[in-house]
Amino acid sequence: MSTRICLLLAWLLFHLNAYAQVQAVEQQFTVAQDGSGDFRTIQEAVNAVRDHSQIRATIRVKNGTYREKLVIPAWKQNITLIGESAEGTIITNNDFSGKDFPGHDFTGNAKFSTYTSYTVLVQANDCTLQNLTIENTAGRVGQAVALATEGDRIEVYNCRILGNQDTLYTSKDGRNYYKDCLITGTTDFIFGEATAVFQNCTIQSLTNSYITAASTTREQAYGYVFFNCKLTASAEATKVYLGRPWRPFAKTVFIDTEMGGHIVKEGWDPWKGDNMFPDKEKTTLYAEYNSTGPGANTGGRVAWSKHLTAQEREKYTIENILSGWIPGKKLRLQPSGISDTSFSVNGSYRHEIAAHPNIRIADSTMPASVQVMRNIAYRTTPGGKKLLLDVYKPNKKAFKPAILMVHGGGWRSGDRTHNNTLARKLAANGYVCITADYSLSTHALYPAAVHDLKAAVRWIRANAKEYGVDTARIAILGFSAGGELAAFIGATNGNAKFEGVTGENAVSSTVQAVIDIDGTLAFIHPESGEGNDSKSISAATYWFGYPKAERPDLWNEASPLTHVSATTPPFLFINSSVDRMHAGRTDFIQKLNAFGTYNEVKSFPDAPHTFMFFDPWFEPTLATVSGFLKRVFSKNGVAVRK
């Protein structure tokens, strides 16, 4: 086989593996009544989705009529349910308010209500329905819901939601988005308290009655908003109202909507005769803008309805209506705000002692030649949190090279004390060592930690005189997640995109050397272990707020390998025997070599990932770091090139 073919095959395998890693996160199921899928019923597929999953699950449903009363419970969030076709994939049921529960002895009030008559109930957040028919075939027997939603951020695309009275119930105060849907019904067939946007939908009235019955609360700025919809009717529906208020403060607005001749000139009804809530029209917001068609008789509308001005219309954007949520845009996981103390030196020792019975935690005695200044605030984050650092410096008064030290812990655990021992010993060797905390993913997502560490480098320069730092010789050292961050800081030297808020006349955040101790260089790479396990959420997923499959661009952006340039300083890689912890190292070194940038690699065979904390590896690690820095920093403080 020729060298050219071998290279081509290697390239192909590399990209196939990378693609497979990206795709591995999401759960995928197929439902088919003929047994050709994973399940025969949709409910079985929903039940198989991981509880409380932060990773989206996609359930594809083959054409067929599924006679189910489907529930997506609150703990099954992030589900996408996609039918093979809207006309051919049918979920159907025929319960209605007042109907007896099946199998009951009927000695009590065992009957369906409006709220339990649904065909499909979506209680979970962040669910999407697409290409489905959801119908309630009970007929004109009173309230009979086809689709009920209780969750937040519910998206419905190209679905046929069919029924009579109370077809679509948007329950609770969640946010719903319907696009390219057909919704049919008789009375109040779009009702509830949720904030909901209907875009490019066809709303078909089957009898003379009311389309909407919103129950928007006083606190909600928006209720139902229809954009570019089309209001149609069956032959028997000739007098239909746009809506009536189910509760006070109901809000319904039609914008750029084509209205058939069945819409009455008054447009809206006040729902008189409701003794519990009389005079609801005094608190409603019922409005239109740019209605068209035979039913758009705005001159005849009731006096208490409103015609939006052009200025008022500008406020009706998807983002405003849905309080910042933009349907179709992937949502980030949000920080829990709860500190994670799972990673520690002592915990690592207990974990490794069985496999390495001869290891000992390295001696942390403070050398007599070193002094320490603790708990110095170097930055206040945009969220108002003060970040602290400690400075370890030689007692001798002279300007020395500095090392900013970044702890590990999966970007969500650990603290600056993990670097105390190495900082003390390096300070004794003539370096000013700064151990810093930074924003962990439990409190702020990427790139907050990057902004913090760039700020820490600037703090070192700004305070160089006080702490005896030679500003032309600043290195950054990190372990594990800290190693990745250190590599990223060095690889992005001079890249303004990652500086964060620097203030006026800010000093430089560039570093002149990087020591990466078992920190990954690439998140999407054949060697990477981050985000490849579809059964759990990786530490990087928590940091980015997105699984690899949803935002590979972000995962690539955060990879130091992406940013190697002529401004990237000399690098030292110190690695354990765990190959995935230095993913991308070979490619990174090739790029450094192409720029003529000095680099070294030191590997410890059979060493665990946390080797730097323990003898017999601590002293060789210390010697390797000291030797590298002596080589790359010349007397005048300029880094040596290879």
TrEMBL record:
UniProt KW keywords: Aspartyl esterase, Hydrolase, Signal
Leader peptide range in chain numbering: 1-20
Enzyme class, first EC level, given as a word: hydrolase
GO cellular component, one term: cell outer membrane
Record's keyword annotation contains Signal: yes
GO MF term set: pectinesterase activity
Gene3D superfamilies: alpha/beta hydrolase, Single-stranded right-handed beta-helix, Pectin lyase-like
An annotated GO BP: cell wall modification
Domain BD-FAE-like: 389-580
The protein, known as: Pectinesterase
Source organism: Dyadobacter soli
